[in-house]
Design brief:
It contains 14 helices and 17 strands. With 433 residues, the protein is an alpha/beta fold. The chain has three domains: 175 residues, MoaB/Mog-like domain (Molybdenum Cofactor Biosythetic Enzyme, Chain A); 77 residues, 2-Layer Sandwich (Alpha-Beta Plaits); 151 residues, Alpha-Beta Complex (Maf protein), CATH 3.90.950. Helix 10 links the parallel strand 13 and strand 14. Helix 3 crosses helix 4 and helix 9 runs parallel beside helix 14.
């Protein structure tokens, strides 16, 4: 990578923000913590320095301990969960105890709750809902337009502000947009925001990418961060700027250098997938595709049809698990199946050629393999996959992959699909019209 890219470094001061998610159900894995993800995205758009997330159960002492720790290292704490009427909703009480402050009732909040629940028989003295009306004396209330549990904005000590939200995502988002967003913008935002551009790679591992971009990983603005999903590597380039156009200028030289370095491996950006990129290219060429699947059982077809507009290029597929169907639907001779076996280059190539001819398309992909965990042998172990691609002018490409047998069945199938899509992408790239 070019050394002069390091001249892009910029360092802006910003307030440090932490997210505290409260709820035993999160620790038990009963629900996915989508709130923290959503809030993180909002903080990025505001240009705030969010560097840590914590999850704690519905335990008063643990909440108090965590809040005290956060108050010593951060400027803003955003909490979700624990604002409801049940005994395990302890957030407001625990936060105030962290700073030895008393709670005081806001009578108007009780009136609002009763208005929101007009058909309920609420007892002024005993209703558990009433606990939602108690806050520190100097706290600003965050109205909850979709529920009964309000939140608060509170500065218990100088330089440290707490914003609390319920755990219900729809309520939290509504409260954020109605009240918290403007407050954070006016008090903490320095008019800078974060903008990201993600490059997506296939056919190369995360460690191989990281080794070649070691100098870029030390940049401050933009920052470059690698992360991987199954069969895919991503590089997220993030710039801090006053507006999107400025951010694009900061990102551009890094992006161009990466595209030059990894030209064959980068298949798309942001929301692109291998399937969507492949469909777009086939549509541009006005060419069609069909599939013959065995070990993936329709997963390859599903990856194609999940993309809007796939009908422009995708004709159909034949999923033939048994030898009988390979024979009757794909015209694979019984002699060939006996001689080579269903999992073989010879049979897979015949599947690709025959399905293309039978379903009348420009391109075909065939796949056969052993996804496991059973069915493998010494000669043909679990993880062995054959892929054949047939195209115009009698084009044939045969691929043999041996995936690690420690992978589970779904992982082997998913990786096989990725190899199918990426292999055809590279073929089309090398034969660009």
């Amino acid at each position: 990578m070019k050394a002069n890219l390091k001249q892009q470094l910029n360092d802006y001061n910003s307030n440090d923000v932490e997210i505290l998610s409260i709820g035993t159900e999160l620790l038990l894995g009963n629900i996915v913590n989508t709130n923290a993800q959503w809030i993180s995205e909002q903080l990025s758009q505001l240009g705030l320095n969010h560097f840590r997330q914590t999850t704690v159960g519905d335990n008063r002492d643990r909440i108090i301990k965590v809040v005290k720790e956060i108050s010593k290292r951060s400027n803003i704490l955003i909490t979700t969960g624990g604002l409801g009427p049940t005994p395990d909703d302890l957030t407001t009480e625990a936060i105030t105890k962290s700073f030895n402050v008393s709670l005081f009732e806001r009578p108007y909040l009780w009136k609002e709750i009763k208005q929101k629940l007009p058909n309920s028989k609420l007892n002024d003295n005993s209703s558990s809902l009433r606990k939602q009306c108690f806050f520190p004396k100097d706290a600003q209330i965050i109205n909850n337009p979709k529920g009964t549990a309000p939140g608060m904005i509170w500065e218990p000590i100088k330089g440290f502000t707490i914003l609390t939200f319920p755990g219900v995502p729809s309520e939290m988002k509504a409260m954020w947009k109605e009240t918290a967003l403007d407050f954070i913008k006016s008090k903490f935002s320095d008019s800078y925001s974060f903008f990201s551009n993600t490059l997506k790679f296939a056919g190369i591992g995360e460690s191989s990418v990281a080794e070649k971009i070691n100098d870029l990983l030390n940049l401050n603005n933009p920052t470059v961060a690698p992360y991987a999903n199954l069969g895919e590597v991503k590089l997220r380039i993030t710039a801090k700027a006053k507006h999107e156009e400025e951010a694009k200028k900061i990102i551009k030289p890094v992006k161009e250098e990466l595209k030059k370095e990894f030209s064959k491996f980068i298949f798309g950006e942001n929301h692109d997938t291998l399937a969507s990129v492949l469909i777009k290219e086939l549509a541009k060429r006005n060419e069609s595709i069909v599939l013959a699947e065995s070990c993936t059982g329709g997963l390859l077809s599903s990856s194609i049809t999940s993309i809007s507009g796939s009908s422009k290029v995708f004709q159909g597929s034949i999923v033939s698990y048994s030898n009988e169907l390979k024979n009757s639907l794909l015209n694979i001779s019984k002699d060939m199946l006996r001689k080579y076996g269903a999992v073989s280059e010879e049979v897979c190539q015949a599947m690709a050629i025959n399905v293309k001819e039978k379903l009348k398309a420009d391109w075909s992909i065939a796949i056969s393999g052993i996804a496991g965990p059973e069915g493998g042998s010494i000669e043909k172990p679990v993880g062995l996959v054959y892929i054949s691609i047939s195209g115009p002018n009698n084009h044939i490409t045969n691929i043999k992959k041996s995936f690690n047998k420690s992978l589970n069945r779904i992982e082997i199938q998913t990786l096989s699909v990725n190899v199918c899509l990426n292999s055809l992408r590279l073929i089309l790239l090398s034969n660009s019209k």
